[in-house]
Amino acid sequence: MRPLPEILEEVNSVIAAACAKTGRRPEDVEIVAVTKTHGPEVVREAWEAGLGIVGENKVQEAAWKQPLSVSGPEWHLIGHLQKNKVRHALALFSTFHSVDSVALIDRIEMIAQEVGARPHILLEVNMSGERSKDGMRPADVPAAVERALSCSSLTLEGFMTMAPFTPEDKIEETRPVFAGLRELRDKMETEFGVSLPRLSMGMTNDYRVAVEEGATWIRLGTVLFGARPKVRPMRMVDAGDAGESGEGGGEFDRVLD
């Protein structure tokens, strides 16, 4: 594996070229370093290379990894958030990319008020219509935006989506997904009279197209750190979890999924 600074130089060149093509500024695009299944040493490597945002897919993985990692980076949750993990997630992450329902907005707002948190959120939208993808339908977005804007403890920053995995020689097929999210964001800004500046879209195989279509956060893992380790991720079990909410108060134990 080549040194991360060398890889980043190439990635930043791709970002700069994509921005030049569409009249954007490269500094308006930030990399979310996805460290899923990698250890705390990768978080340090990313931080020392100048990457200020770490993205994790699971609350339980961040719970054991974060205390062992270098301080400094922002931690973003980019994977699906279950309602019974919200309290734990609020203690770990500043931003949630994958809020996919009004019910989850309500849950985050309620717990955030209880604990005095001020999270930032993105609404995850399933622009491709794939059943295997998380995210709300585009038709459900206006109601979710309206609810999020009414909340006092959370801040709606924008939207997130995932394109279908596409071979490199057909990568242009992802463009309608990214363009569609940008157009939806623009429509919501006009309809509600607000600024929603963040678009989280684009991963290792398609980030160039995503940047050309307006991405401000690109979620990169494999291109930066290589293939993910073939290990089972750790999860955190709270012995006090009980009931529908799952919001218990016991101590965490590290166990394998």
Tell me about this structure.
The chain has 257 residues and is of the alpha/beta class. It has one domain: TIM Barrel (Alpha-Beta Barrel). It has nine helices and ten strands. The strands form two sheets. An eight-stranded parallel sheet has the order 7-6-5-4-3-2-1-8. Strands 9-10 form a two-stranded antiparallel ribbon. The two termini are 28 Å apart. The relative contact order is 0.16. The C terminus is likely disordered.
Task: List the main descriptive attributes of the protein structure presented here.
about 260 residues; alpha/beta; TIM Barrel; eight-stranded parallel β-sheet; two-stranded antiparallel ribbon; 9 helices; 10 strands; about 35% helix; about 20% strand; globular; disordered C terminus
Tally of helical runs: 9
- Contiguous low-pLDDT stretches (5 residues minimum) are 232-257
Per DSSP E runs of 2 or more residues, the count of β-strands stands at 10
Rounded average pLDDT: 90
> In angstroms, what separates the terminal alpha carbons?
28 Å
SSE pattern, N- to C-terminal? HEHEHEHEHEHEHEHEHEE
The gist of it:
The chain is an alpha/beta fold and 257 residues long.
